[in-house]
Amino acid sequence: MRANAILFWILAGFFAFSAILYSVWTSIDGNDPGVEWAGTVALSLTTVLAAFIAFYLGRVHKAQGAELPEDRLDANIDDGDPELGFFSPWSWWPMVLAAGAALGFLGLAIGFWIAFIAVPIVVIALVGWVFEYYRGNFAR
User: Fold this and answer.
1) To 10 degrees, what angle do helices 93-109 and 113-130 make?
2) Within 10 Å of residue 126's Cβ, how many Cβ atoms?
3) What are the pLDDT digits (tens) for 42-65?
């Protein structure tokens, strides 16, 4: 975690330098006098975001008091390998749910009536995904 905090502080410094250089460069450009504010603000906010993340990671590292396995030189690969849960490699329900969500967003972009078609597909996919281990070959 300490390495991540240092990395984000370096990124914050780089983005700050880039924002200053960008604002100076655009202000001395002969084609359009003045600072180009969209890029300057974007780079400045990127600096602030990287600094926020670096500060947060530094505070969490101090609060935990322990090193993560990836920060130790004597750690094994298995030390940082947590149990993430159980996932069905043969399940088709996530694809149906993604198609229903895509159809719902398409309804927001093109016509709201498409969302009325997407809602039943999303509901059926959610119910199917939740209850897939209650019936059939994989019932528990």
Assistant:
1) 160
2) 14
3) 999 999 999 999 999 999 888 887
